[in-house]
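Appendix B, example 12.
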Amino acid sequence: MSIKKKILAMTIGPVLILGLISVSFTLTMVKSAMTDEIQDALKGTAAATLAAYDQNAGDYIQASNGDIWKGSYNISKSESLVDGIKENTGMDVTFFYGSQRIMTSAKDGNGDRLLGSPAGEVIIENVLNKGGSYFSKNVSLNGTLNYGYFTPVYQNGSSTDIVGMVFVGTDKEQKNAVINHIMLTIGVAVCVVMIICAGAGIKMSSAMSRSIRTSIGVVEKVAGGNLDVWVDDKLLNRKDEIGDLSKVTIKLRDAMKTVIMDISANANALLNAGTDLKSVADKTNGTMEHVRSAVTMIVDNSSEQARNSQSTSEHMKIMGENITETSGEVDMLDNNAASMQQSSEKASETLEKLRIINTDVERIINDVKEQTIRTNNSVQKIQDATSFISSIAEETNLLSLNASIEAARAGESGRGFAVVAEQIKKLAEQSNTSSQEIDDTARILMEDSTKAVELMKQMQDIMVSQSASMEETQAVVAGVLAEIESSMKSIELIKTSTHKLEASRNKVVSAVDELSEIAQNNVEGTKKTHQETEEVADTFRQVSDSAEKLREIAGQLADSIDYFKI
């Protein structure tokens, strides 16, 4: 490959590779960012939809006709809500009750809403069973792929009872078209920059190639043994690397002249030194064999020590993780015990208030019972009075009858008396009728009062039983509070012990880590020493061999010097 091609490869190649990597990385990041943005938009719309449904007070229930209600709001008839969301966001919204679609903005080719179909098994598992949100890049709505986001719907006031889910989807093809357009724009821009850089690299490489070929020609003459060459002044006056290369070539020529003369003078001395070096290298090689055996034994011992230290460190770290986990669980247990204590104290206070209220209710019921008994006594007196009035009315009626008979006997003179007797008779009959009505009313009042007294007696018995149950519950809560207090003291002791154990464990781990690091350093040092020893032994063997060759080369070197024309 020519120098020009190599320069082009070194200048354009990295640009092309960097450009391709940049395009690939940028497009991947853009696509990922756009997908995350789509997911966030779907998530926000799903949250807004769920909030729109949850603003209606009440529980999610299913009516006898199959409609789903949220309080007083009929979700199965919420077409205006889902259509409004789709109109404002361009996203389809679906409400699932359980795994069934009961309201959606998505429609088929005939304009009918896609209702009644169930959700997929993966969605049911992730959302309804596990209670998590789920994002999918391939949700099919009437044969059209969508980006989809599912979020669970919880029963009113609950964080665990999942009654359904809300789905929000957007057309995948439309979103992908936007993403592809952005990616294409970025790719085109990077390609234009790459082409510009490639053109500049080609121009620079051509100029550099010509200057380098000129310098190569000079060096070739020097390589041919001609040390009387000269370099063009234009190249020597350049201020770049080509000028430096030309100057170095002249220096190389001068240096080679000096070196060749020195080599010729030292060739004989080198021959004598080679003989002496071989003798010394042979002796040193024998000594290095003994040193190598000793270093090998040290390496083996250090490796064993390092393995033992590493094993101890790993076991201490595992123990530390267990202690840390235990400490976390103890803190959680302490918090739970404190919460239980607060709840039990509130329960005790509530029971005491209920007991006081129960006592007041029992007293009020007793007062009502006594009042009802007094009312019964009064009604009884009224009945006695009406009986007396009835007997008087009957006697009055008999008297009026007798008066009428006497008036008839008296003839014309008793006619006035007969009129009076007739009025007395009517009055007696009215009195008798009124007393009968009063008696009936009093009897009904008596029966109602008797029933009220019986009900009051039953309620009084219930309140007495309830008071006894509350006292027993108070005793149980008091016992629970005592047990919780005892448990909290024990938990505090465990917590203190765990913290002390954690501190001790940290000190031991630190010491073991230091020991492991020292052992590892020893292993590395001994291995390095062993390796260097091997290298030294090999070197001396090579020195011995090289010393022999050195004497041969010294003779050849003297012959080679004659190649140059000084």
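The chain has seven helices and eight strands. The chain has a mean pLDDT of 77.
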